[in-house]
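Reopening: PUR2 protein still failing for me.
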Amino acid sequence: MADRVLVIGSGGREHALAWKLAQSPHVKHVFVAPGNAGTADNGKISNSAVLVSNHTIVTQFCKDHNIGLVLVGQEALLAAGIVDDLRAAGVRCFGPSAKAAQLASNTSFAKAFLDRHGIPTARWKAFTNPQEACSTDFPARVVRARGPAARKEVTIATSKEEACRAVQEIMQDRMFGEMVVIEELLQGEELSCLCFTDGVTVASMPPAQAHKRLLDGDQGPNTGGMGAYCPVPQVQQSSSS
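Support: Ran it again with your exact input. Result attached.
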């Protein structure tokens, strides 16, 4: 029997999820909360005004509308534990727990995890004091605000002065948070390798490359993403699974 599905989020990621879910014969209808113009009244897809920040209201919406599955794309909600709360209420939900979501939402947690398990990563330090943050001696620096809402607030600084300006914006002006992580800048190609897992089995997707800088030639400020493509020529494709 076809299920009703709720996708939580409002960006292109949620639009793509809803679009693909609607193609399945197992899906009767896809609600997107809050959604965007592309998911408004589009065949089997429609937007919902349910207050996604209130997990109790979302749970009740799922029960009232016979939602068979919830997919959460919004990172701040994952970090806030919406998956934990929905599952505790008996609602089937696809997404990481709040603890697991820290790998994406909390830069200092993720970097410490990599170090603890011997996974190669750029040198880094976390700071709560702006003067100490400006004293790092990496030749080139990546300045990251900490927290789910600020995860993509990243400055690629080629000088100590530029890094200090970014630190001041983040910490002294409290634009994005009260902690920064400063990393050594690694030069070269950057690829994303995403996987699906149920906690036991891992299924890998093909590697992809995203373009983060605003302007052509890797110029301009860093963004959440200006586009992506897959497959990538930097990785040889294998015919075997």
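The helical segments are 12-21, 55-64, 75-79, 82-88, 98-105, 107-116, 130-133, 160-172. If you still see a failure, please send the error message rather than a screenshot.
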